[in-house]
Design brief:
about 150 residues; Rossmann fold; six-stranded parallel sheet; 7 helices; globular
């Protein structure tokens, strides 16, 4: 499997950053937050090329939310189980399989701190996005290489 150096050399010295954006829907799409999916994509694009853009939702997600996410280019994953577990497994798989160079997680849930730490240990750049100032998790902010707050 080619590593980052191989990709850097094979592209003539350009550093292709493959970005995976993983959105924790139940913890961010709430009445108290005004999450704009275009802003989420923009944060991901600041880090490179979006190769994964996923929103994880539970079975209570409205059809309107699903349609809005798909219209903005997100893959929607609906699960009847624990959304956090599915998101963490998929993001870990992307890191381990060397599918991404930057991991972006939108959540306010501190359960994702170990995910960010493990990705960082493997050399993957990490970005934590909070859905708003009062939705910011200090644990995620401190675990990530970079943090953003959606206004």
């Amino acid at each position: 499997m080619p590593g980052l150096l191989d990709r850097f050399l094979s592209t003539g010295g350009h550093d292709p950053r493959r970005v995976g954006v993983f959105v924790d829907g139940p913890n961010t799409f709430r009445d108290e937050f005004d999450v704009d999916l275009d802003d989420v994509r923009d944060v991901g694009r600041e880090s490179g090329d979006l190769v994964i853009s996923r929103i994880y939702l539970n079975e209570h997600a409205t059809p309107g939310l699903i349609q809005a996410a798909e219209a903005r280019g997100f893959e929607v994953v609906v699960t009847s189980g624990d959304v956090d577990v599915k998101l963490a497994i998929d993001a870990t798989e992307a890191v381990v399989e060397d599918a991404i160079d930057t991991l972006v997680v939108l959540s306010r849930d501190t359960d994702f701190k170990p995910l960010l730490e493990a990705a960082g240990r493997r050399g993957v750049r990490t970005v934590a996005i909070a859905p708003g100032e009062h939705g910011r998790s200090d644990a995620l902010t401190n675990a990530a290489n970079e943090a953003h707050i959606l206004e």
